[in-house]
Amino acid sequence: MDSFHSHPYYPPDAQIYNYSPNTATVLSLLLTASAGTTALLGATYILTIWARPNLSKANRFAVLWFVLSGTLHCFFEGYFIVNHTRMASAQDFFGQLWKEYALSDSRYLTSDTLVLCMETITVLVWGPMCFGVAYSILSNHSLRHPLQIIVCMAHLYGDTLYYSTSLFDDYARGRPYCRPESVYFWIYYFLMNFIWIVIPFCKLSPHDCIIGLLLKCPLVYLYQSMKTVSHALKQFDSDSHSRKSK
Q1: pLDDT tens for residues 35-80?
Q2: Where are the alpha helices (DSSP H) in 52-143?
Q3: DSSP of 208-220, one letter per residue?
Q4: Is 208 a member of any domain?
Q5: What pTM does this model have?
Q6: Assign residue 216 a region: left if phi > 0, alpha if psi is -120 to 50, beta otherwise?
Q7: 203 lies in a domain?
Q8: Are 168 and 107 in contact (CB under 8 A)?
Q9: Where does this protein reside within or beyond the cell (predicted)?
Q10: Which of 3, 70, 201, 212 is an S-S bond match for 216, by CB 3.0 to 4.6 Å?
């Protein structure tokens, strides 16, 4: 029978069974995760140079972003949906990362229905579609912008739902899922999810050295795709009217 142990998560009465503290330090987890992310982005960058040497910097960055998103969705979040019932006692790398993150949202250790359903959709649908967007950019496929609109809207909707449900339970029901220390709310909970809405991207060149900092984010990608699709539809309508007039 599963046993209930004391734990550092909020709310203190959260039913987290078979909890065991992480054996790895936070620093070692962050260094390992950073090394893996660097290797992934480095390999992806080399692939973009090999596949399309003339790809613009903006599109090259977009490929890196969507590959990183797809990898996190399919593998890191995929680990969660497969192992959510045993996360509290897990001592493998992903398990310990999730336990560290759960200090900002204990729902990940209690098999919360909303989080589990939302993450399942993310793993099975949005993750693969992120890879699809990356491939469509590399191959200059016509589906790039329709797919990009769907994925960006999914990220915006998912983040909004994630934030709102947690904050509602905290402020309206007095049931917080995040520890009271600022680092867990502002860095873990807020920032680590907010980057899927806004991603700062510095691009310096002789033509824009005065501006220096450009904002590239899902909102920008969404606007970019909607503008491209709108232009294509207008062009199609214009061509149709021209053919009818003849």
Answers
A1: 999 999 999 999 999 999 999 988 998 899 999 999 999 999 999 9
A2: 57-71, 77-83, 93-101, 113-121, 127-138
A3: TTTT-EEEE-HHH
A4: no
A5: 0.85
A6: beta
A7: no
A8: no
A9: Membrane
A10: 201
